[in-house]
Amino acid sequence: xxxxxxxxxxxxxxxxxxxxxxxxxxxxxxxxxxxxxxxxxxxxxxxxxxxxxxxxxxxxxxxxxxxxxxxxxxxxxxxxxxxxxxxxxxxxxxxxxxxxxxxxxxxxxxxxxxxxxxxxxxxxxxxxxxxxxxxxxxxxxxxxxxxxxxxxxxxxxxxxxxxxxxxxxxxxxxxxxxxxxxxxxxxxxxxxx
Length: 193
Known about the structure:
Layout: H1 8-16, H2 20-41, H3 46-78, E1 85-94, E2 97-106, E3 115-122, E4 135-139, E5 147-155, E6 163-170, E7 186-191
Antiparallel strand pairs: 1-2, 2-5, 3-4, 3-6, 6-7
Helix pairs in contact: 1-3, 2-3
């Protein structure tokens, strides 16, 4: 698998995502090993040689199936989710002249997928204040499936806002911050100075 470009971190992400193809690949690999052991135990007679060949061919088929399913499963599980992270969030200045700085990072983003970023003024309960987003952006991945963007933008926060919430999500994902989903958003809330 390493020669095909799968690193251990990709496999661990796939296992962490409870990817059934990785489990199927493991089962096929165990069956391939079992076939090899059974082939060694067959007595070398004319009929035994035929059975040994059949068992070895079956082992090779299981081995190739394990390799194929592992590569496809790891690539599918570790890529495409594009879980975004929002880091280094800083609010500069005082009302009404505020400047918001933050980083958005995601990897494993599908070629045609996007990461949507929203900034809203919120009350103490995290509910949006006002009907419009303070900032809205759609980010696309580079050719390696990565999104890395430093955002620095002036914001005009509503007077009754307690804080600012930055939400980054894979396009088409859930907007609710507490949702339990592989396509759930990342939410960061900062109290206003």
